[in-house]
Amino acid sequence: MWQPFPGNQHRLIGWFAYLGTKRLKREVRRVTFYSIQRHRLSNMSELAKTVTGFLAVIYYWIESIVLFFVPVRLKAKDISGELVLVTGAGNGLGRSTALKFAEKGCNVVLWDINTKGNEETAAMLREKGAKAYPYEVDVTISEAVYSAAAKVKQDAGIVTIVVNNAGIVAGKSILDLEEKSIRKVFDVNVLAHFWVIKAFLPDMLEKDRGHLVTISSLAGLGGSPKLTDYCASKFAACGLMDALQIELHADGRKNIHTTVICPFFINTGMFNGATTRIFSNLNPDFVAEEIVTSVMCNKSLVLIPRFFHALYQLKVLMPARSFLALHDATGGTDSMTKFTGRNSKKVQ
């Protein structure tokens, strides 16, 4: 057989193998080098994001301190002409809140299962020159909420501010609570918020503006005797809004705001008989004014009275037994002893 390089085949093959291996190593080094550089750049990018995030934390903290001293009239947004929905508007805090929004030039959609009370609220609003749209709606039924929301859009337009206010309380110890009562409290105080938000948030997302307000309670931030179901439902409402706020932020929705209102006992009849040794029950008109101001200033969490913000922060630092002693000292331990509530299951 003819051979081009007799006797040198193995040497030639070895040479080509050597060149191939050398080139392969060089290629591997090149790929490894660029991979390391990309990894370094990626790490630098992540580091930059982290540093920027912490700088933003400091900036917004300072901004919050500065804005605290700025008068409301200078930092409040104009809400005149907005269409506001208030649930539980037939009496109590819901009625007061609707009236306060009307005073700011808003038109108000009124939802309540108490038709008579709701119509009375509507008449009060019209006397102030505001447009009022009363509807009988059971917010615990999702289909009823979605149907009413569609009718509101047809009759009044797009709702830009939603106030989830309806709520109920049983005022019994956990062993005295019936299962039906517990489920009802959660239906009104928590699940209804889901249905209302799901009904009106899509239009807010489409317009890229809106405001969602939840009326929770100080009982949504700390426990109280004979309010296990109520506290749990209000904690859940706070958690819902906390998560929703972050969800909207993650989606880049800077123009859709959330506000959680946590008031002390209010003189609406809901907590008749409930008292403490130090703190007085609140006037619904005062609380309503705070709600509207909080919306105008885009506040996220509002405790009423405001000094409860300090007590709330203190709770995080206090040992459990110290917190219980504070309950004893303020009369919180016995606050529900003389509770009578009201016969109606409608709240605020």
UniProtKB/TrEMBL annotation:
Q: Where are the transmembrane segments?
A: 51-70
Arranged from A to Z, the UniProt key words for this protein are: Lipid metabolism, Membrane, NADP, Oxidoreductase, Transmembrane, Transmembrane helix
Membrane topology of this protein: Multi-pass membrane protein
Q: Where's it found, cell-wise?
A: Membrane
Domain (Ketoreductase) ranges? 82-290
**One GO CC term on file:** lipid droplet
Name of the protein in question: Short-chain dehydrogenase/reductase 3
